[in-house]
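Researcher: I've got a protein sequence and the SMILES for zinc ion. Could you write out the 3D structure of the bound complex as structure tokens? I'd like something to compare against our soaking experiments later this week.
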Amino acid sequence: MHRRSFIKKTGAAGIAMTVLPGITLSQEMEYSIIELMGKTDIELYGKGINLRKEAHDAFIAMKKAAYSDGIDLKIVSSFRSFQRQEVIFERKFMTYTEEDGMDPLAAIDKIIEYSTIPGTSRHHWGTDIDVIDGYPKTEGDVLVPEKFGAGAVFENFKAWMDENSETYDFHLVYTDDPKRRGFKYEPWHYSYAPISKPMLEAFRSKNIVQLLQLEEFYGAEHFTIGFLKNYIQNNILDINRNLL
Ligand SMILES: [Zn+2]
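Model: Sure. Here is the predicted complex with zinc ion in place.
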């Protein structure tokens, strides 16, 4: 009896050995649709950081280096779920259409200057951050491009990140390249390339137009195929080429 169970165990172990490398590989390479769209919980690391393990570790290393140069890297926003993005989108859509009386399509165009359609935010991936310098005092909204310009409050932060962020594999996503379409310049939004590149590749291999047409949040009924195709081309794919 003992012998029999021993054989069974070794047999199972033998199979596991041969199958495991394949399983590990596919788990690393494949991201599910719900994961790519922020519709499932993923493992996040670090209090106030909330990134995937590898991205978290790289951020900590970058934060230490910045700290010794007098910059206090402070995350304003990192992982965001589909539901959270849905709340943001719907609130803006209601404000623009009901309070401001905008045409629905014009309202959507205005929303997507800075905000994403739920399910398409890079913040769903646990790889992207909105980051500033926590040291200087500043009033009002911090995520405005003017605050990162010459002579402005985050000028040193910007110079430091330009010089060092790529050493830690963090790349600016929405650059100030005048030829770039899609989202406006966001000097605060960085992405951890080693994970976000394969995630973008996985996402663009899905039928995004069809997925978004199935959505039922407020405003989604106005999405046409043409609009969604342009959105994918401009807002999802017209980004810093280092991240493609
Ligand atoms: Zn962002």
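Model: The radius of gyration is 21 Å. Residues 1-19, 22-27 have pLDDT under 50 and may be disordered.
Researcher: Great, I'll pass this along to the crystallography team.
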